[in-house]
Write a structure and sequence with these properties.
This protein is mainly alpha-helical. The protein is 71% helix and 0% strand.
């Protein structure tokens, strides 16, 4: 299920060589999938960065990218997608967010809400560590 070209990149990377930037951008998702399968974490991170740099997040592809990021545990892509949703919430609402949310898990809906709250909260609130102490019983 991994093409020979992608597997060659994996082998080169494991043995100390780097994957050319052009190949990282051109085959980012395939490299992410293969690096994830074979637990090559640093290559996965490099491919994720190349994917984020080379992909334009739009209303049409934001949910696919968010679901992919969640499934593959891609923190950078997830952050970019959630930020896009927070920045474009009004446009997304008018383009049918309710239809999109119906197919989502509660975890994904909570990610959307977190991103929206983060953009709406003052900067000092998101950078301050909030503590909660339970009442003594």
């Amino acid at each position: 299920d991994v093409s020979p070209k992608i597997f060659r990149h994996l082998l080169f990377y494991v043995y100390g060589r780097s994957v050319p930037k052009d190949d990282l951008k051109a085959h980012a998702k395939d490299i992410i999938d293969a690096a994830n399968k074979y637990s090559i974490v640093n290559l996965k991170l490099e491919a994720e960065e190349a994917y984020v740099d080379s992909t334009e997040i739009t209303i049409e592809n934001v949910m696919d990218n968010l679901l992919y990021a969640d499934a593959m545990n891609l923190a950078l892509l997830k952050e970019v997608a959630v930020d896009f949703l927070a920045d474009n919430g009004e446009e997304l609402l008018t383009s049918g967010l309710s239809t999109i949310c119906q197919g989502m898990s509660s975890k994904m809906c909570s990610l959307l809400l977190q991103g929206r709250k983060r953009k709406l909260c003052p900067k000092w609130l998101t950078t301050t560590k909030l503590t909660h102490t339970a009442p003594m019983v």
